[in-house]
Amino acid sequence: MDRHALLRAAAADLPGDTPRLDAELLLAHVLGEDRLRMLMGREPVSAAARAAFDALLARRRAFEPVAHLTGEREFWSLPIRVTPDVLVPRPDSEMLIAEALAHFAGRPPETVLDLGTGSGALLLAALSEWPGARGLGIDRSDAALAVARDNAARLGLSARAAFAAGDWAEGVEGPFDLILCNPPYIEDGAELMPDVAQYEPAGALFGGADGLDCYRRLLPEVPRLLAPGGMALFEFGLGQGPALLAMAGRLGMRARLAEDLTGRARVLATAA
Hints:
The chain has helices at residues 3-11, 19-31, 35-40, 47-61, 66-70, 94-103, 121-129, 142-154, 194-197, 213-218, 222-225, 241-250, and strands at 72-75, 78-81, 111-115, 134-139, 161-165, 176-181, 226-235, 254-259, 265-271. By secondary structure, the protein is an alpha/beta fold.
């Protein structure tokens, strides 16, 4: 069976919205090739590689995330190592970096704070864009911090990226030019897809009865942490934007909502 026939057969019964892509990523991983090289290759798949591929497909059919199977997920064109101790980086979160780039066009930030850093994806993406910047990632999970430090080392950013254990912004001293945060914002008890519910850390997902508990702690900290001319960016879930704008307004903060490419409000932006 050639590669494309193998991929077609594999994608036929994989769960999720992108079965063909998932199959391609898994086969490329098994073959030790990037996805494009794998798709262009004409070499037959060996029996050993086929067995390894079949084993990964079985795990994916049990809803294990592709990022866990391959050990990494691309984020902002960076290969981010992923384990079950951290949230798998999503493309939606790249909006925070895009908004930051727009805000700091022509005057790069010098200091970046990533609250709830997880894999370190947001902080490391920011530092990759601004070679003169330094950053701090905070997380309450020691296991997550180990993943973030490893990612910084693998990307050659350890000299500019520090990581520390903490309870959100408690004990953190500013100011910072840029604050990034993708807090847990799913309502407690909400139904999730099996690959999320069964495999990703609940502490990075659920944010209280209305999903806004973390913002109630975080937004009041922004004025003391944000440098003049700086920006704080928070990701949020579907329909939560108006409540967050109202929350920021009660705190006397200047805030707006930023929409993704589909027109869905996704990021709360506050400026000093």
